[in-house]
Amino acid sequence: MNLEPEKREIIINAALEEFAQKGYKNASTNEIVKKANISKGLLFHYFSNKKKLFLFLYDYSKDVFLNEFYNKMNYDETDIIKRWRQIVLLKMELIQKYPVLYDFILASAVEDSKEIKQELENQMKNVLEDSYKRLFNNIDTSRFKAGMDIKRVLEIIFWVAQGFSNRELDHIKSDPAYRSHIDVNALVEEFELYLDLLKDTFYQ
After folding, report:
1. How many C-alpha atoms does 71 have within 13 Å on its Cβ side?
2. Which of 8, 18, 135, 167 has the fewest CB atoms within 10 Å of its CB?
3. What are the C-alpha distances in Å from 61 to residues 50, 67, 79?
4. What is the number of other CB atoms lying within 10 angstroms of the CB of residue 90?
5. Any idea what the Cα angle at residue 79 is, between residues 78 and 81, rounded to 5°?
6. Residues of 29-64 as b/e, b for ≥16 C-beta within 10 angstroms?
């Protein structure tokens, strides 16, 4: 991170593209240095091996994406359904702003290399727990129907959203080419239908 910004971005983007397109196992550091127009010795001066490079990129991607995401969230919106709409629309905005970075995050989510799988799973679990705490604080539960078990209702809404994301990840796992054909706008419209069903089910 002490490199001049332009050179740093060239190296990071070259590595993000290589890992996103080929996965951890098949990604080539030779291709990365070729795209970045640097020597292999320089790359390994900063990252002693391929694993450390990948995990650095994961931390970098996560920090860039989540920091902007959390900073743009309107936490004054206390309606859980409206907050979910905000989450999805903001996520779509960031996907369009950082396409290479998001491709890498998606590829990481379905990465199955034993060398890094456990570390990725631990990080993803921590991100999920932290996101739940941040995004579902200060919810106005007065909108729910009388007699509802609030804790379970909130969990169901969260599980629906998480299940929707997991469905897309399963598609990517079974067909890696699916990622390049994802229609983000169509997914947002579909997710809106689920939110409307949840609202009809649980709201007064």
Report:
1. 7
2. 167
3. 16, 10, 29
4. 16
5. 140
6. beebbeebebeeeebeeebeebeebbbebbebbbeb
Token pair in block for residue 116? 């890094």
Give the closest residue to 98 by CA, choosing from 3, 36, 12, 22. Answer: 12
- pLDDT value, residue 1: 65
Q: What is the mean pLDDT of residues 193-201?
A: 93
Per-residue pLDDT reduced to its tens digit, 84-116? 889 888 888 888 888 888 889 988 988 889 999
Contact 100, 13 (CB under 8 A): yes
Considering only CA atoms, which of 194, 174, 7, 171 is closest in space to residue 85?
194
d(CA 116, CA 107): 13
Residue 144 phi/psi, 5° resolution? -75, 155
